[in-house]
From TrEMBL:
<dbReference type="InterPro" id="IPR003313">
    <property type="entry name" value="AraC-bd"/>
</dbReference>
<dbReference type="InterPro" id="IPR018060">
    <property type="entry name" value="HTH_AraC"/>
</dbReference>
<dbReference type="InterPro" id="IPR020449">
    <property type="entry name" value="Tscrpt_reg_AraC-type_HTH"/>
</dbReference>
<dbReference type="InterPro" id="IPR014710">
    <property type="entry name" value="RmlC-like_jellyroll"/>
</dbReference>
<protein>
    <submittedName>
        <fullName>AraC family transcriptional regulator</fullName>
    </submittedName>
</protein>
<keyword id="KW-0804">Transcription</keyword>
<keyword id="KW-0805">Transcription regulation</keyword>
<keyword id="KW-0238">DNA-binding</keyword>
<dbReference type="Pfam" id="PF02311">
    <property type="entry name" value="AraC_binding"/>
</dbReference>
<feature type="domain" description="HTH araC/xylS-type">
    <location>
        <begin position="190"/>
        <end position="288"/>
    </location>
</feature>
<dbReference type="InterPro" id="IPR009057">
    <property type="entry name" value="Homeodomain-like_sf"/>
</dbReference>
<dbReference type="GO" id="GO:0043565">
    <property type="term" value="F:sequence-specific DNA binding"/>
</dbReference>
<dbReference type="InterPro" id="IPR037923">
    <property type="entry name" value="HTH-like"/>
</dbReference>
<dbReference type="Pfam" id="PF12833">
    <property type="entry name" value="HTH_18"/>
</dbReference>
<dbReference type="GO" id="GO:0003700">
    <property type="term" value="F:DNA-binding transcription factor activity"/>
</dbReference>
<dbReference type="InterPro" id="IPR018062">
    <property type="entry name" value="HTH_AraC-typ_CS"/>
</dbReference>
Length: 297
């Protein structure tokens, strides 16, 4: 059995908190390979220098200068360097940012199909690389400063980056992993995980999920834990709590409203699940982030 993927809480990242948006932008200097991991934010990244291999959902691709990768929340991936180090831009954000305006729904729904109808990575040519680099540079500059309309610029630049990527003509080769996947145990769990990312706010049971994917509940329970390192319930709760943590840090919604929003039918159940995942109550978590945010005012 392989190593279990590590969970990374994006809201606890040292660079989070310089914007009112659930987002942060960093220029990362990678000096080592990173084992299997996943996080509660979506990730858009671009390699500035260095080479290596990134394995997304079990499918590897070589990265180099100009490789752009987009990962949905909780998308399991691994980075293996072949050069001594690599430099890359990383934009981490709450996927719900893409659904703030009805006019952006077409784009947001397309991005949810990453890994199926759209590739997880793009190898840009020189002209494309220059344009995308300018977007990342502008976003990092905005994030690190306090100019008028900062959050509006950050969101508009993020949308611009995604529109630019989805307009790039796709080769048949880039989509082979998505359309030629065999229904192995791991690929079935990957499909289920992707379904959970999109529908975790709905009423979901293990039995209902097993029925949807034409298997039985006990078998699904066993292989899900084998692949994800968590039970189905633990994984579902981590998705819901991740969304709840973002809402607690960035909105004035009540705890009850947030519990309902993320898929819990009882505040008591939500509070217990939140404490299991975060080690603190929702109210204490919100207070901590409000105190941290006041340091930037």
């Amino acid at each position: 059995m392989g190593a279990y993927p590590r969970y990374q809480d994006s809201l606890s990242h040292e660079h989070y908190g310089k914007s009112k948006l659930p987002l942060f932008v960093v220029l990362s200097n990678l000096e080592r390979s990173y084992p299997l991991h996943y996080h509660n934010f979506a990730e858009l990244s671009m390699v500035i220098e260095g080479t290596g291999t990134e394995i997304v959902g079990g499918t590897p691709h070589v990265f180099r200068e100009g490789t752009v990768t987009f990962l949905l929340p909780h998308h399991i991936h691994e980075i293996r360097l072949s050069s001594p180090k690599a430099l890359k831009y990383n934009i981490m954000f709450d996927l719900n940012m893409l659904f703030l305006s009805p006019s952006d729904r077409e784009l947001a729904n397309a991005l949810l199909k990453t890994g199926l109808d759209y590739p997880t990575h793009y190898d840009l040519n020189e002209e494309q690389r220059a344009h995308m680099t300018s977007i990342f540079q502008a976003m990092r500059q905005e994030y690190e400063n306090e100019g008028f309309g900062k959050d509006s610029v950050l969101r508009s630049k993020l949308l611009e980056a995604f529109v630019f990527l989805l307009r790039i003509p796709r080769s048949l080769d880039s989509m082979k992993p998505a359309v030629a996947r065999s229904e192995t145990r791991s690929s079935m769990v990957e499909n289920i995980v992707q379904y959970l990312h999109v529908h975790y706010q709905d009423e979901i049971t293990l039995g209902g999920l097993a029925s949807r994917f034409n298997t039985n509940a006990s078998y699904l329970s066993r292989i899900f834990k084998q692949f994800a390192g968590q039970t189905f319930t633990e994984y579902l709760h981590s998705l819901r709590v991740g969304r709840a943590a973002s809402l607690l840090a960035t909105t004035s919604m009540s705890v009850t409203e947030i519990a309902i929003d993320v898929g819990f039918d009882q505040t008591r159940t939500f509070t217990r699940a939140f404490k299991d995942v975060k080690g603190t109550t929702p109210k204490m978590y919100r207070a901590r982030f409000r105190n941290a945010a006041s340091e930037y005012v």
